[in-house]
Hints:
Helix 1 packs across helix 2, helix 2 packs parallel to helix 3 and helix 8 crosses helix 9. This protein has one domain: TIM Barrel (Alpha-Beta Barrel). By secondary structure, it is of the alpha/beta class. The strands form three sheets. The chain has a nine-stranded parallel beta sheet. The chain has a two-stranded antiparallel ribbon with strand order 3-4. A two-stranded antiparallel sheet has the order 7-8. The longest helix is centred in the last third of the chain and has 17 residues. It has nine helices and 13 strands. It is globular.
Amino acid sequence: MQIGITLPQMGLDASPAAITSIAQEAERLDFASLWVGERLLRPRHFVAYGGRGSRAIPDFQKINYEPLETLTYVAAKTERIKLGTSVINAFFQAPVVMARRLATLDQFSAGRLIVGLGQGWMKEEFDTANVSLQRRGNGLEDYMGALRAVWGPDPVHYEGRFYNIVESDIAPKPVQPGGPPVLFAANSQAVIERAARLADGLNPVLYSWEAIEALARDFPALVRDAGRDPSQTVIIARVNNGIHAQALPDPRPPLVGSLDQIHDDMHRLAQLGINHVFYDLTLIPVQEQPKLLEQLRRAADI
C-alpha cells in the first residue's frame, strides 16, 4: 500500500520550517506522497454548507499557505516523493494560468506532481474571485479542455463556452506526457461520471465502506463506458483525522481507528484495487507527527 500525508500547510503550526521537516521525514521513511489543500479565505461569519446548514469555518484554516508555492518549495527540499493537491479549486484561476503554474511545478519537481482538482463550494470564495457559482458542472468540462490544450503541443488553440485561447505558443510543458494526472474530488455522482470522461482518476474521502466499495466497482465501468482504459486511471483515497490511540467500536469509517485497525483496513482496501491512501494530519501537533509517521508507515506494510 502506498501511503501519504498532508503537510503542515494549514493551522497555527504551519511554517516553512515545519513543512520542510515533515516533508523530509516522510521521504526518509519512504512515504509515497505529500499533499496540500486550498482555502481562499476564512469568512468570520457562518457559511452555508450546501444543504447541510450553516456553520463557522474551522479556526485552523485561518492560516493556509498557498498550495502551489508550498509544493514548489517542497520540491526543492525533496527528491523522490510525489507532491499532490487535495484539492485546489479550478475556477479561481483562468485555465491558462493554472496550466502554466502546474507545468512549472511539474518541471521543478521532475515530474512528481499529482493534481487533485475541485470545483469549490463556498459562495464567499466565488464572490471574492468574481466568478459565478453557476460555473460549476459544465464549466469544469470546458476548464479541462482548456487545461489539456495548454499542456498539448504548440501552437495551442482552444475555443470553448467559457474559455478561449488564441493560437499561441505556451511553455513550459509538463515533464509528464500529457500533463500530470488530474484527479477530481469525488463528492457527487455527477462529478464521478464527469471524471470517468475527463480526468485521470478520483480523490474521494473515505466515509464508509459501502461508498468506497461502490466507487471501486462502478468507476472502472464508467471509464470503460466513456471509451477509455480503466487501467490508466487511479483512485487515491483521503482519510480525514482518522488516527486514534485506542481501537474504536464497529461500525466505523474505513481506515479510522487504532493503528492495528488501520493495518487491517488497508488489506481490505487493497482487495478493492485501491493502493494509495493519504492521511490528513492537520489537527495533530507538528511535534507529534514524526513518531506518528513511523507508526503509520508500519501500518501500511501489508
